[in-house]
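$ ./design --mode recover --in tokens.txt
reading tokens...
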């Protein structure tokens, strides 16, 4: 599954000055609500926090993947943020996070989100690759890195 097909370059944010996991989730809910999906910020926030109570979305290797399914969202939407500095995220490897990939999917099509999560799990295992995302200077560079990595995985 090509994750970049669900990611728009304008949904990539660089060097965000967020300092806590809670701040990341609040900010992500705001950004997604403002992106025009038609879902209120409070709903997105509540869904993200509810998901985190189940299990942390800190997947390790300096990456957090907050995700949720929301009634009323059509398809799947991805958002990428790099953080100004690494922050604690209750990750499985106990290491701080500096790359965030938010996924918001249709509650009627959970397999779409599961496929995207599986793809992310595969492409984000490479520490150098994750660091290259964090060090990217432009949104276009992040998009290209993700696109190129996916192409290599599929070939």
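writing sequence...
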């Amino acid at each position: 599954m090509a994750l970049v097909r669900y990611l728009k370059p304008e949904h990539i944010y660089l060097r965000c000055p967020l300092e806590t996991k809670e701040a990341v989730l609040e900010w992500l809910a705001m950004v997604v609500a403002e992106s025009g999906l038609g879902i209120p910020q409070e709903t997105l926030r509540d869904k993200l926090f509810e998901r985190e109570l189940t299990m942390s979305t800190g997947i390790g290797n300096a990456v957090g993947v907050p995700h949720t399914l929301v009634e009323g969202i059509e398809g799947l939407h991805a958002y990428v943020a790099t953080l100004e500095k690494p922050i604690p995220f209750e990750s499985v490897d106990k290491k701080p996070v500096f790359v965030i990939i938010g996924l918001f999917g249709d509650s009627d099509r959970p397999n779409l989100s599961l496929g995207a999560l599986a793809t992310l799990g595969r492409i984000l295992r490479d520490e150098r690759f994750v660091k290259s995302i964090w060090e990217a200077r432009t949104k276009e560079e992040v998009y290209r890195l993700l696109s190129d990595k996916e192409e290599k995985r599929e070939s």
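exit 0
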